[in-house]
Amino acid sequence: MKFLYSLLITLFVFSCGTTSDKPKDDLKTLKEEVMIVHDEVMPKMGALMKAKKQLLVKIESETDSIKKIKYLEVSEQIESANASMMDWMHNYDPNFEGNDEALKEYLNGKKVSIEKVKTDMLAALLAGEQSLSE
User: Fold this and answer.
1) Are 117 and 85 in contact (CB under 8 A)?
2) Rounded CA separation 67/106 (Å)
């Protein structure tokens, strides 16, 4: 009987320990997902700014005012995407503290915003590359 009682207590303790780690694991995974998106687009910043510089040079030498306006718009799109990434990084707090629910809400919001930054950056880079190939 003593053995059975000890076994039940041991099983109870282990089952409680496993369940309590689930929210922490979910938050860790969510944080990793946020950083994966960031790490995917961050290396594209160099290409983005290079495209902007090349567009500015092209604007200076372009005589067609319609093309000039188009290049300027794409350059501004690139600058906006760059500013979005900088704002996101400036406002991201990897040490955000709060209860599990607050942290989950914070990370979900950051995930949505970094995915928007990614979309904007990739669209701006594509527009820049297309404009430069004309």
Assistant:
1) yes
2) 42
